[in-house]
Amino acid sequence: MDLTTIWFxxxxxxxxxxxxxxxxxxxxxxxxxxxGREERERRALINTIGPVWDGNxxxxxxxxxxxxxAFPHWYASLFSGFYLLLFAILVGLIIxxxxxxYRGKGDTDRWRRNWDLCLIIGSTIPAFCWGVVVANLVHxxxxxxxxxxxxxxxGLLNGYALLGGLTTLLLFATHGAYFLHLRTTGxxxxxxxxxxxxxxxxxxxxxxxxxVWTQVAHGNWTTLVLIVLAVIALAAxxxxxxxxxxxxxxAATALTIxxxxxxxxxxxxPNVLPSTSDTANSLTHENAxxxxxxxxxxxxxxVIFLPLILLYQGWTYWVFRQRVIVERIPVA
Length: 332
Description:
single chain; two-stranded antiparallel sheet; iron; about 325 residues; mainly alpha; electron transport; Formate dehydrogenase/DMSO reductase fold
């Protein structure tokens, strides 16, 4: 296996990890007005992700850095052609991060409601836009001989991409509901379980349509197996949540995201950005790659530092593993 293949897999793993971890963060943010009936419940919901949300974002930062260093042509074409979509994601993440930091700085209900709205918006926009971005990666975009995007923003909002955005939006919301069932107690946990059932059922239709579309238009035997397993995992999550097994339901949606993301990257391979105008202009893992020396240096750096990062993040989750109990949160 050559270094370009290794780094394609590494970037796919980083994005998959990001979607799993940040997916439930987005879900909690989107569900804040639905499950948080009063201030203490809303604070409890935020506290479930408070210690980890910023650490989860490290995955996408690392993925972007790896793409820039390992596949500079891919990075350049993606970030220029998808500029408005990625800018919308960035703005959403900034709004959300600001909401986490500033929500508790004021004492009035109006202050907290405004920042809650920012948290909801900052979670919803990236959850939808990431699906649009990844779907367009698989579907392909018009590229010229210099690998420059020749379409418009409206070309990125095609039916397949919009269905991908709806799928990630609902899937992350379901993932967040299962996470809250796992991380809270009492009536709040039960309401999260009930909401997870409704969201899971609502997710099944667009998710199945999107995955079938992917298989028909871009799939192979490997993607078929992965897609079938993803559908089974999504159904298992519903069944497990119905029986009250919150931890296993959360694991099932995490597995669903992992399998679906892997299927999309397998459908993309060996391209990294297909051209719909002329297949000769497609970016592949070979013509988009950096030099062999650069990839070699990056590989050694990853071997040394990646285990340390994973150990640190795992330790963070272990320290903050306890359920959040609403009754123990002081009345504001």
